[in-house]
Amino acid sequence: MNGFLNTFFNLDIMAAIYPMLLNGLKETLLLSVMIVPLGVGVGLLIACARAAGNRWLNLFLTIYVDFFRSFASLVLLILIYYGLPFFGIEIGTRSAVVLALTLNTSSYFAEVFRAGIGSIPYGLIEAGRSTGLSFLQVMRHIIVPQAVRNMAPDLITNILETIKVTSIASVVALPELLRMARIAQGNTYSPTPLIAAALIYIVLLLPIVKILNRLEKKAY
């Protein structure tokens, strides 16, 4: 038992690598704060635009959603990070991660919002328009608030998955939590840093799950 604890839960190693993991956690939180609102916002705009019923706009947005949903987020990140410089477009590492994950996650959020909006009777849109409200006002004040109730579980799941997928930023050497844990593992020759990173993810995500579940219950 002592051998197991010394290998996977070495407290001396955890204390030594704490500053590295803390810096990685800050980067992970920064990415989450940037990507989640962008993904949700772009996805909502796409869903509302598709609900407007313009044939050519719907075709373009459907292609957008299907295209980026078909890409693994890791592959998309690699293509953007290493591919854009060939076209003379230089962006920073963090910007590449934010762009790749926003494109990927917004396509999933768009489908979640589309399903939620689709669950609301179309007659409500017509009723809202008949009172003199614009399409955007109807969506903002009538349709989207009701749709959120129907799609709350899927929306919560996608938000949590978006936070977790920020770990792929380690592939392009962005010093987020997983990247710093792997560096610490190489320095200490121990799996303890990876276990510590996993525990941090659990401590980070569990409160978010509780908060989002509480908001979901209030929505109902």
UniProtKB/TrEMBL annotation:
- Keyword flag Cell membrane: yes
Q: Out of the domains of life, which is the source?
A: Bacteria
Entries under InterPro entries matching the protein? AA_ABC_transptr_permease_3TM, ArtM/GltK/GlnP/TcyL/YhdX-like, MetI-like, MetI-like_sf
Q: What residue stretches are annotated with the ABC transmembrane type-1 domain?
A: 25-212
Asked if Cell membrane is a keyword of the record, the answer is yes
**Coarse class of the protein's main subcellular location:** membrane
Q: Which residue stretches, if any, does this entry annotate as coiled coil?
A: none
UniProt subcellular location: Cell inner membrane; Cell membrane
UniProt keyword list? Amino-acid transport, Cell membrane, Membrane, Transmembrane, Transmembrane helix, Transport
Topology of the protein relative to the lipid bilayer:
Multi-pass membrane protein
**What Pfam families does the entry give?**
BPD_transp_1
**Transmembrane regions listed in the UniProt entry:** 29-49, 61-84, 194-212
PANTHER family, sorted: GLUTAMINE TRANSPORT SYSTEM PERMEASE PROTEIN GLNP, MEMBRANE COMPONENT OF AMINO ACID ABC TRANSPORTER
Query: What does this protein do, in the record's words?
Result: Part of the binding-protein-dependent transport system for glutamine; probably responsible for the translocation of the substrate across the membrane.
Family membership, please give it: Belongs to the binding-protein-dependent transport system permease family. HisMQ subfamily.
What's this protein's name?
Polar amino acid ABC transporter permease
Species assigned in the record: Salinicola rhizosphaerae
